[in-house]
Structure formats: C-alpha cells, structure tokens
Specification:
transmembrane helix; 16 helices; transmembrane; 47% helix
C-alpha cells in the first residue's frame, strides 16, 4: 500500500513540476505561445488524472493478489520495483518532453508502420469493467442526462410545424417551391444521443411548382461516376411529361417536313432567368444546393416574422457552415438548437438528396454545388425499430452505441477530433445487429456486445474498410421496402478517405488506441461506487 501511494504521488508531483508557468524561460518572461502550452499541459494533466485512476485500480488488484498468494511475495516485490523504475523513467521523460517542447524540438517520430504494428493488438490488453459497473455507469451517466430528450423533441417538432405552415403562407404557390411536412432523423430520434447540447435534426422535403418536376440521377444508375462522387447524385429540373434528357423530339427523327409543337428552332433552350428562378445552377437545368439554401433561409426568415409575435423567444441562424442550423433563445438565457434542412425525395422512396450535410474532418468537399449527398436516415431509423421488435426486452444494442459514443466523444475532447464520427459508430452497430442472433442482445450481455463493437471497429480501422450498411447490402429486410438499385450497387467504403489522408488516419488510430486504454478509467470516473 505505501508503495502504491508513492506511485500516485510521483505522478502528481510530475504534473505539478511540469506546469508551464512554474519554470519560465531564463529571461523571466512568459512564452509567446503560453496559451498553446497551457492547453497542451491541461490535456497532459487530464491524461495524468486518468493514469492515477488506472494506478489506483492496479494497486487494489495487486493487494487482492498479495493476500491470496502469500507465497509469491518476493515476485510481487520485484514487480513493484520494476514498476517504480518505470514510473521514474516516465517522470523523467515528461520533464524532457517539456524541455524539448519549449525549445521547439518536440515532434512525433512514429510512422504509419509503427501504427500498424500496434493495431490489431490494442484490444487484447484492454479489460472492460464488469457488468455491474457498466450497468451503473449507463444508469447514472447516460440515462440521467438523456431523460429530457422526449420533451425537447415534442417542443421542437411543434414549433417546426408552425414555422413551415407560416412559410407556405408567405410563399408564392405558383412560383416558389412547395414545402412538405418535416421528419425527424438521426440520434435524437433513434434515442442514442448522449452528449450535450442535444440537437434535433429535421429534414423538409420540397418539390418544384407546376408544371415542373425533378428528375434525379445517382452514381449507381449505370452512368460512370468518378470515385469521389460515389454516394452523390444530381437533380435536373424538367417540365412534367418531359424526359430528364429532354423532349422526345431530341431522340426521334421527325423528318425534314415535321416540327415539334412544343419546341421551335428559336426556343430550343429555356431562358436562363427562368431556370435560375427555379434555383438551378447558372445556365443549367441542375438544382443548385447553395441556391436552395439561400431561398430556404429567406423563406424561413419571412415565416418567422409573421408568427414571432406568438412566441416569447427569439429565433436565429446559429452556424454559418450549416445553413439550416437554427437556435431558439429564451429570455432566461437558455437556448435550444435544431437543424431544419431541405431535401429532395429520390423517386418514390424514402431516400433523400440532402442539400447540406454535417461534414467531418475526414469527409471530402462536395464535387460541386449541383451534386447532392444521399441520406438513408429514414431507413436506418426504420431498420432499428424493426429489429428491436425481435430483440429481448431492454436489449443492449442502443446501450452499447451510447457507451461507445460517450467514450469516443470524451476522448476527442481530450486529444482533439479524429476521422471517426458517430455515424461510423452507428454503422458498426447496424452491421452487428444484422450479423448476430437476437438473443445475443439480452441486457446481461452488454459487456460482450460492447467488446464486439470495439473489436469490429478495430478490424475496420486496420483494413481501412467500413462499408455503408445499406448500399450493396442484399440482406436488407424486405419489410423496409428499400430500393433494389442500392442493394445491387457496389458497396460504398466509408473509410476510403483514410487511404488518401494518412495524417488523418494516424490521428484516428492514435485516438482510438488512447480511448481503449482510457476506457476503464473513464467509466470508473463517472460511475457511482459499487461495493
């Protein structure tokens, strides 16, 4: 016990000694990049705090082993001496790290080969907390913070319906786009969001005014699309009864003495101003995402001006890089954020072209503003609901996803963002839901399924392959009514950008390894003590 206390004190003393303001430069002034150093040292102190938790847990395990194995006292003492030497070397290395950083010589010398040598072995040394600790963590940390999501969803949906009804009243029915009712998608409506602030994601389908219609073209429709455009499509604005490629007179030989009654030689193309009024890209018939968002923002502003007198709060656009992000601000200072994003329906399905999608550091920029990303969020929500009916009561699939999302979010707050997103984590859960029998998701198997998700994610990172759950999946339940064209398409690798961006890949691998090492400490830190 005294030796364990000495180890903990050694880590604390090292953290204090390494504070950037304790030993400034020789000139007695604070470093020019003091803020940067303080931020890095705060992150270092946070890691040291987690190390303290791990050390405390190791000390307790060693004491239990010492009591049950009295005949192995000498071996335990040698092990302690070796760990003390390791702690001394760690403390000395931290001092050197601080000195090198101040001199501008600190750098990461690990290469991709070193990452790959560790990857695949990282999970073998990780011991997750037992079932009782995981259950207590989930109840005290996850459920305690997500209890008011239902009330928030109800409030946001009611206000959004009122706002869209006002939007329809201020729009010109003969010239403006026709707006339909909104739908809730994403983690808030699948009941697995864990990190605040809670943000509701609502999509709003819209259609062109008569006599126009939308004709869509997707990457898997037969035409060749470059690899960076897979998962995208284009939307062409046409007149009703007109093919997406043009009038039938363009494809049929009418003869020299015959004319098309709809199109004369003097009017083979539509005026540019008409197509721009229909939110198309300049001099084309293709719907422009930026034009759509400008129109939508203006329409929402007009609608709010009409109904603002009914409410005792303010409404504003909150994010510049996400045009549909809105914020309700109450007079008390509290606020509620939600996203209201216009989408276009793909044919008669529940697949939608989305104008703007939350981007991560891993995702590439859109090929152009006429390329729209396809979202399968409605089918993802339906699949989870369908599978949940066959699972045991209080199944642990959502709990696993919530715990994994919490751990990853907490780790990113310590070490910075990585290429992994919550959508990747949900995709892992969807694959395992389809692969494992329903009885494997009983609530008492939470620990085993959480291990499965971590192992599966580690394997995907190692191979740089995580396939989209729906695209190329021929085993999608027929009850969903999922379009067959996407089932027959080539699988879409969500980790393809890792092949192109090695620096992002290394950062993601490092963050994942650090999360694995901190898993027990993070869970124990946020868990009420269990005797």
């Amino acid at each position: 016990m005294p030796m364990g206390i000495f180890r903990v004190c050694l880590v604390v003393i090292t953290a204090i000694v390494n504070h950037p303001l304790l030993f400034p430069k020789d000139n007695g002034t604070v470093l020019e990049n003091t803020d940067e150093i303080i931020q890095k040292m705060k992150e270092r102190e946070e890691r040291l705090r987690l190390e303290q938790l791990r050390l405390g847990q190791e000390i307790a395990d060693q004491e239990a082993t010492q009591k049950s194995l009295g005949n192995a006292a000498e071996v335990v003492e040698e092990t302690k001496e070796e760990k003390i030497r390791w702690d001394m070397w760690t403390a000395f290395s931290m001092v050197l790290w601080r000195q090198d950083f101040q001199e501008g010589n600190w750098q990461d010398t690990g290469g991709e080969e070193d990452d790959m040598a560790v990857l695949g072995k990282a999970f073998k040394g990780v011991a997750l907390p037992d079932k009782a600790v995981l259950a207590s963590f989930y109840e005290k940390r996850i459920l305690a913070t997500t209890g008011d999501m239902a009330r928030m969803r109800e409030m946001v949906e009611g206000f959004a319906d009122d706002l869209l009804e006002a939007l329809r009243s201020v729009c010109n029915r003969d010239a403006d786009m026709e707006v339909e009712d909104c739908m809730g998608v994403g983690s808030m409506y699948e009941n697995w969001r864990v990190r605040k602030p809670f943000v509701c994601d609502l999509v709003v389908p819209f259609a062109p005014p008569e006599p126009y219609c939308f004709r869509s073209q997707i990457w898997c429709s037969g035409d060749s699309f470059p690899p960076d455009e897979q998962g995208y499509g284009t939307i062409k604005v046409c007149r009703a009864g007109e093919d997406a490629t043009g009038c039938i007179c363009d494809k049929t030989k009418l003869g020299e003495d015959m004319l098309c009654l709809l199109h004369s030689q003097a009017n083979t193309t539509r005026p540019s101003s008409e197509m721009e009024d229909l939110l198309c890209f300049k001099n084309t018939q293709y719907l422009d995402a930026n034009q759509v968002m400008k129109w939508f923002q203006l329409a929402v502003t007009k609608a709010w001006n009409r109904i603002s007198h009914k409410y005792e709060f303010d409404l504003s656009f909150s994010l510049l890089d996400l045009p549909g992000a809105l914020k309700i601000k109450f007079r008390s200072g509290k606020s509620i954020a939600f996203n209201l994003t216009p989408v276009v329906q793909y044919e008669n399905s529940d697949v939608y072209f989305i104008s703007h999608f939350p981007r991560s550091g891993l995702a590439a920029d859109l090929p152009s503003t006429t390329h729209w990303f396809l979202t399968f969020a409605v089918y993802e929500r339906r699949f989870i609901q369908l599978v949940s009916k066959a699972l045991p009561a209080n199944a642990c699939h959502v709990s696993c996803l919530q715990i994994l999302a919490f751990l990853h979010g907490k780790q990113c707050s310590l070490t910075g963002p990585s290429g992994l997103t919550n959508y990747h984590l949900k995709t892992v859960m969807l694959h395992l839901l389809q692969a494992r029998p329903s009885q494997d998701w009983a609530p008492e198997k939470l620990e085993a399924r959480l291990q499965d998700m971590l192992k599966f994610l580690e394997k995907c990172l190692h191979e740089k392959k995580l396939y989209h759950f729906f695209i190329g999946n021929g085993k999608v339940p027929a009850e969903l009514g999922f379009p067959i064209i996407f089932q027959r398409a080539e699988p879409l690798n969500l980790f393809r950008p890792f092949v192109l961006h090695r620096d992002v890949y290394r950062k993601t691998v490092d963050t994942f390894h650090e999360m694995l090492r901190n898993t027990s400490a993070l869970i124990n830190e946020y868990t009420v003590h269990i005797p």
